Amino acid sequence: MKATTTELNASHVAMLSQPKAVARGHHGRRRRRPSDESHSSCPSAEPISSSSEREIPEPGPGQVRIRVLACGVCHSDVVTKDGLLPGIAYPRVPGHEVAGVIDDVGAAVSEWKRGDRVGVGWHGGHDGTCLACRQGDFVNCARVKVCGIHYDGGYQELMVAPVEALVRIPESLDAAEAAPLMCAGNTTFSALRYSGARPTELVAVRGSAVSATLGVQFAKKLGFRVAAIGRGPQNSAPLRSGSEPTSMSTASRPTPHASMQSTWWSARDSVHRAQRRRRCPRSWADSGANGALVVVGASAEAIEVPPNALIFGRKRILGWLAGPPTDTEETLRFAEMTGVRPMIEKYPLARAAEAYARMLSGKAEFRAVLAM
């Protein structure tokens, strides 16, 4: 049985185009895969749509096939579109915030069965044999896999994933709301837990994307005092929900009191979504002793820090990457228990191009989610 697909080709990294009509077979087995070929670095790129028919993949040993119910459109999908990591084999389907149900299981799979609600996040698998894996540090596996980069991701109706990448989704969580928790939720929840901050201490959350809004919610539920910082007044209002009264837009010049609570280093710890400035602000000196800047947004820009700002007060900077499935399952259970939910915009799979473009524009309120 074959399916019409629209995918990324190595020779076609151009504008994301609307996928062609899907051809469905019996039992909904036929699928479509919209192309993720947007935001090209080539100024001469033209809008394209690469469609083809493929056999529905059969799960191999240690794999399952997932019927995708929802997939978040994360900015890191640009990695696949732009080929930012070496060795990406095209055509490739992006998407690493997957929520769905198991459609079929391969050989040697005993702990999962058809109908199980599962997800797949950024961490798409590990070898289990390298030194990092033997030490339980699966994120730093020497041969780590990323869903949507090393194998086809969730911008489609059916996908295959290794069992070590699977996340069990609680029955009470809606698939479209669970999907962003696979990456954005996992990252912010774990970054807060491992930041070193203690309950009742002040945590500053900077940014306007879903990670920042989830960061505010998680921080409050974990017992922190929260100061939210948005880029511009249009993004500050959603972040302010549940945060300190001193929360402010970064477009405003902070008063001394506001800078004590609303800038990177004014708090015991700061979770920073995306670094776009080369120099840290003057308020660095106002941060608490033993404070930390936790960077969870990837960027090629440098962070310039005077050594004295680190030494005096024993401050630190650390990066945090989405953790393994066990971390994601803890994130989902915590969200289920406390009512933490992402702010989402739903798009049908046929409008994947529009959802991707809106994500790139920064105008999505807040996570664009493909709902099947």
Write out key terms for the chains shown.
372 residues, alpha/beta, seven-stranded mixed beta sheet, Quinone Oxidoreductase, Chain A, domain 1, Rossmann fold, 17 strands, 2 domains
Counting structural domains, the number is 2
- The H/E string reads EEEHEEEHEEEHHEHEHEHEEHEHEHE
Mind telling me the CATH class of the largest domain? Alpha Beta
Percent of residues in helices comes to 10-25%
C-alpha geometry: globular
Quantity of strands, as a count: 17
The CATH topology of the largest domain, please? Answer: Quinone Oxidoreductase, Chain A, domain 1
Describe, in plain words, how this protein is organized in 3D.
The protein has helices at 78-82, 131-134, 175-178, 184-193, 210-221, 233-240, 256-262, 307-311, 325-338, 352-361; strands at 2-6, 51-55, 63-72, 98-105, 117-120, 123-125, 145-146, 158-162, 166-168, 202-206, 225-230, 248-249, 269-272, 292-295, 316-319, 344-347, 367-371. It has 372 residues and is α/β, with parallel strands linked by helices. The protein has 2 domains: 2-182 and 323-371, Quinone Oxidoreductase, Chain A, domain 1 (Alpha-Beta Complex); 185-319, NAD(P)-binding Rossmann-like Domain (Rossmann fold), CATH 3.40.50.720. The strands form 4 sheets. Strands 3, 4, 5, 8, 9, 16 and 17 form a 7-stranded mixed β-sheet that branches. Strands 12-11-10-13-14-15 form a 6-stranded parallel β-sheet, sandwiched between helices. A two-stranded antiparallel sheet has the order 1-2. α5 links the parallel β10 and β11. α4 (184-193) packs across α5 and α4 crosses α9.
